[in-house]
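Field notebook, page 353. I keep forgetting to write these up properly, so this time I am using the form the group agreed on. The chain and the ligand, iron/sulfur cluster, are recorded exactly as supplied. Prediction of the bound pose follows.
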Amino acid sequence: MNGSRLIGIGLSAAKSNFTELDRPYKITFSITYRCQSRCLTCNIWEKKPVNELTIEEVRAFAKKNDYFKWVEITGGEPFLNSDIVEIVKAFAESSKGLFILTMPTNSLCSQEMVVQKLRQILSLGIPKVSITLSLDGNRQLHDKIRGIPGNFDKVMSMARRLKELQKEYRNLFFVFGYTMSRLNQGRLEETIADVKKELPWATANNFHVNVGQLSGMYYGNEGMDIAADREMVAKEVGMLLKKRRAEIGMIPLIEGIFLRKLVDYVTTGKPPMKSRSLDASLFLDSYGNVFPSIMWDKKVGNIRDVDYDLLKLWSNSEANEIRKSIKEGKEPASWTACEAYQTIVGNIKGAVR
Ligand code: SF4
């Protein structure tokens, strides 16, 4: 079954190199904007969300839109939504070709609760479940950037729990998600070394790096002075690429391309390739609003207005206008992991250049 699902996502990705898709295969879905962090790079924690999608609404959406092969759950802190298992289950039961579920966590929720819910999620038959443990520095630095004393130690403890859990669930994967900003520039190597002191098995391969970006609609951080120095980012990503052990497989290959293109992006300030937003992927916020990505405040519509049928929005005038803007290169410059992977696999020629 895993093989056929892998072939399914591979075919969608391959097809997206030659033609516009008639439906997306990846959804990034913020299941709540609630967050107990106090990050200095992101203001989501200041949002006071009301009227977020209910589990009944998510079920209706998942049932009507049964073609997702990759579901990325995000937040806020996803584990603050007590329906998280039911939400994943709704997608897993409807989208029979679902191959991968990805999800970040700030490691601040009760770890007993997280592990218990993860066990249920891991038992749903999804071939790959990948968790990103947010980690922006060593003990002192991470706790300062995240605004929560003791957060670094909770991330370490969560990593130990997940490492144990991997012995039981072969479909579980996890990495540390390091967001580079002005606040931690130049500190990646030291962070990897300090993590290794806590977790002797950890290597550079366990780190996924992003650069902190601005999005008023999503992060609520428009105008914040968080951008890391371009040369520093290029140097640190270069260091990470050198330290990474060669790994075989599609995901390490795409991750390597993502990192190399990240250097291009910070050096030129331009996106390395045209995105596949509103073609291969979309962003659904916790109120049901559909956007091309987390980085672009262009609303396509709301699933509540179309009886939860995404395809009724897929070809509306707003969506077509956004696609035209992307073709004309008018999309805001960004290179986030949420968008980059499907962009890379949908632009193979540009990716290997
Ligand atoms: S970066 Fe993540 S953990 Fe920090 S405030 Fe934003 S959503 Fe919360």
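OBSERVATIONS:
- The pocket of iron/sulfur cluster is lined by residues 35, 37, 39, 42, 44-45, 75-77, 106, 134 (CB under 6 Å).
- The beta strands are 26-30, 70-74, 100-105, 128-134, 172-180, 207-211, 281-284, 289-291, 301-302.
FOLLOW-UP: compare against the apo run.
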